[in-house]
Every structure is written in C-alpha cells, then in structure tokens.
Amino acid sequence: MLKKILFMILLLQAFGANAQLNLDNNEVYKITYSSSFNGKTREHQNKTWVFAGATQTLITNEKDFTKKSPYPFEVSVADHKKNELELLAFLGAQNVISTTDTSLRNQQFEFSNETKTILGYTCKKAKAIVRSNTMELWYTDQLPVKGAPSALGQNLGLVLEMTRNGNSSITAEKIEKQKLQLPSFVKTPAHQTDLLSYRDAIWKSRFTTIPLFTHQVINFSDTTKSTGDIMRFASGTIVVKKIKMPVIDSGSSAFLDVTEQSNGDAYDRTGTVFLIPVDKKQSFLDGLKNGVNTLPIYTNGNGKKYQGVIATPDYNPLIELMRFFTPFGIKQFNQNAIKGKQWQEAAPYRQDITDFIPLLSNKEVYIGVFIGNYDKGGHKITANITVHHDGPAQLRPHIVPLFNTLNAMEMAGQEYATMFDTDKGITVQFTLANPLKNVHLRYVTTGHGGWGGGDEFVPRLNTILMDGKIVFSMIPWRQDCGTYRLYNPASGNFNNGLSSSDLSRSNWCPGTVTNPFLIELGDLAAGEHTLQVKIPQGKPEGTSFSSWNVSGVLLAD
C-alpha cells in the first residue's frame, strides 16, 4: 500500500502539474482584452482571455481556449499565493508539458499617483522596464481578484490596460462574472520539465526538422568505406545520403543548418552542401560511382579538361545549397591558448534554401557534403534542414542548374576550376522549351590560390553576360574576416600582429558561409541562350595556381 501511495505521488509530480488548477466549476471574472497600435484596433483579432479567481488566474486567448489554434499553443496559470506561474504547452493531442516560472517574484515597478477610469473602475498606474521596453500598466483594486493579460503585473491588482513603448496596447473591453467550465484538453496529464527545456520544446515544435548527417566524419583515407545509408566517395571527402523529403507547403520557408568541428585537420577548407540532380540521362552520382572522367567534359581552349561542370542536354551539374569554409582547427586545436581569447567550440552555418523547395518537396533526393582535405582525421559535421510553415515565401517553381566549377571530386582527380585563364571563361549554352518569367541567376563565387599573389587574396572583377549582354559586374570581396578570429585557434599569427584568418579574401572567410548573389535577368524567351562568366584569373607562380569556384542556377516564376 505504501509503495502504491508513493507511486501516485510521483505520478502527480511528473504528469499532474495542471491538476493543481482549481478554477474548474468555480465563479471567476472573465476579462476580454483587445490589442491596438497607435490607437487603431485591428479587426478579427484573436482576443486575450483572462479568468481571474480568488487565488489563481488563467491567461489564454480565444482561439487557444476554444481549441481552434493549431499545435503548439500555451496557457498560463498565475498562483497568487505561491507568487509563481504554471506554464502549460500543448504540443499535440497527448503531448503536454508543463513547468514553473518564478520570475513573478523579481518584477519591479515604479508607481505613480496618476489614475484613470477603465470600464467604470478607477485604475492606478505602474511602470516597468522589460528588455529595454517601457511598460505602463493600469490596474484596479476595486475587484476582489488579481490578474493581467501577461505574466507582468499579476500581483498588482487586476490590470485592465498595458502599453508598451507608448504605442502598442492591450486593453480590457469587457468584464463578466461567470462560472468557469475548463475545456477537457486543459486537464490532459502533462509531463513536468525545467523552464529551459520547456521553452526549447515549444520552439522546436514550431517547425519540422529533417536530419541529414549527425557527427559525420569527412576525412581523407584510402580505407574509407560506405556504411549504412551513408555513401562515401573521393577517399572519404564526400558523403552522400538518399533522403525522403516530406511534403513542404508552398508558403513555407526552408533553412539548411551545418555545424562543423575539426577532427584533426588544422586548415581552412572549402566545403559545400549539394543536391545531385538525377532527372537526366547522366548525373554526378554516376561520376562518383564510376569515376570522374565518365562525366561530360568542358573545354575552353586552354588545353585542360573540366569534368562535370556545366549543363548539357543529358546532364545537370551539382546544385549548390550552401558554400561554407571551415575555420582553422576549431575544437581540435582549442588547446592553443592565447590570453584574452576564448575559442569557440564549433562553427555554425545557416542558410535560407527556400528557393529549392520545389526540388525537395515530397521527393527522394541525394544530398551530399564535401570538405576538401588530406587529413585522416578530417572534419566532423552535423547537418539538418528545418521547414518553417506559414511564412511569406513566394516560390519560383522553375529551377534550371547551369554550372558548378567547384571540384567536389578533387581527391578523386576532378580538375581545379582554372578555366578563367582565357577570355572565354566558362560558357554555357542551353535551350528553354518554354519561356520563363521573372528569371534570376543565383550565383555563388569564391576565389582561391593561397599565396600572396593568389586570387584568394587578390580582388578580381566577376563579369556575367547573358546572350552577349553584361548583367553582372562586380568584385566579390570580404573585409570582415577578423570578426571570426575566435573560430580559428590554429590560424597562423604574423609578426605584424595579424592572423591569417584576419586577412580579407575573395568572397569568403574561414568559418563563414558565402552568400549567393541574386542577379535579375528579366524574362527569357523559349529557345537557345548563352551565359558566360569571365574573371581575369591570376597567372601561376611555380607550382602555385589560382582558381575560381562558381556555381549558377536559374530561378524563375
């Protein structure tokens, strides 16, 4: 019997936080609030509802309380005797979590002698500063209950109006005395957790996370083998995974997240996350499996053969979702102590990939990651895609990959992108079966050649021509690399006080994402078109040479 009683106590502690709500079937005051901005009240708003009882106050809103809101949603209960909040989050029909928030005890107010009348009740004024916002609260003590439309001011009295920064207000428009019948969902057993975990669970429930890779090693080793659903190529410097993507609504936004740590390599390296198109006769996957020289060859008269870099009638190059650059030895070399510097533990990269939703939604896709390195420890990454619903995104349904000169199969013999040593540069001829409206070129470019005269450190003009007309001409250059010094524990220090990671570069920094340029092309007619990229690539010095990794995809309505 004693064991049974102890079990019931533990069960109530773990799953019964909302069982402490004592407002059900009791007489309460229901206060309905509406919001306004600069004195203007928006129509058809979801109004805040507060149910104030003798010792507790329930804070909710019309849609949540009537269960018209999608998951997740929350309700709060202020316990005026304990001076704390019980928070309830409904993540699903049978997935409810709760926690206790004691921040009510730390609220401080500045009181005023001003008064005003709201709904016939005399209200006093109190002011608080919350996260640099000035909050003015008007509360009355002419009713036998306490409460407020938010956590702030729960124990002042009954707050009938709250104004933030003088322009955004929430004001009581009706007070009713009634017997409260709690909806059944409020009584669903809840799992109690700490406040930080509670907030994290709510945050993560607001979007869909699609795992790609978890603590995946990308290194260089002759003994590298594919395992499970991870395919490894180019001596382990490329990992590829076939992923079944969910249906993604057209109003959604999608983001790609990558976290990188050194697993042994001390140097800054080129990285890319890519999608392998498989909609034509041949794909980059064929090159990974059968050898780089089985891919279509591009030549421009300089005597070299560049494998798999441009679109042909039977082949599409890699579609680059993200270009990133590893810092110098993050995590693995954090023992390189420098006074006054606290090294970061991992390099985070996050990029909006909403443009590519039409290629992802409800499809099986091949997604890969490349990090160029010759280290058997290499690098370790975790990557996922998050899908955020009900956003303002407007998708462009037509996506046409044109070129990608980043030699992801570098360690399997793919030629470096040195084709810009001739005036022809890279030239792509393509045919549109139908006209395209509102066309943009998504263009990613970075210059390489890591010595003093190499294009990594020399500004070079990038020029793009569409059907012979210049549509883009600028020098891509990053001068903010020193911002990321704390991500680069193994970066070399020079006699002049600079570090290698501080130096400005051709559109990249160690530890950053390279953002694409969106180049407006207008409307394109059906038929033949030619796109050309020209860069005055620097000349080799001995065994050192320059190259330019550029990728381009057409996006159109």
Short structural summary:
The protein is mainly β and 557 residues long. 7% of the residues lie in helices and 42% in strands. It has two domains: 2-201, outer membrane lipoprotein receptor (LolB), chain A, CATH 2.50.20; 207-556, Peptide-N-glycosidase F, N-terminal domain (Jelly Rolls).
Measured as a percent range, the helix fraction is: under 10%
Estimated radius of gyration: 30 Å
Largest sheet: 13 strands, mixed
Structural class: mainly beta
The CATH class of the largest domain is identified as: Mainly Beta
Q: What's the shape?
A: elongated
Q: Please, could you describe this protein's structure?
A:
Helix content is about 5%, strand content about 40%. The chain is mainly beta. Strands 1, 2, 3, 4, 5, 6, 7, 8, 9, 10, 11, 12 and 13 form a 13-stranded mixed β-sheet that branches. It has a 6-stranded antiparallel β-sheet with strand order 15-16-23-18-21-30, with helices on one face. A 4-stranded antiparallel β-sheet has the order 14-24-17-22, with no helix packed on it. β28 and β29 (about 470-475) form a beta hairpin. The chain is elongated. The model is unreliable at about 1-20 (pLDDT under 50).
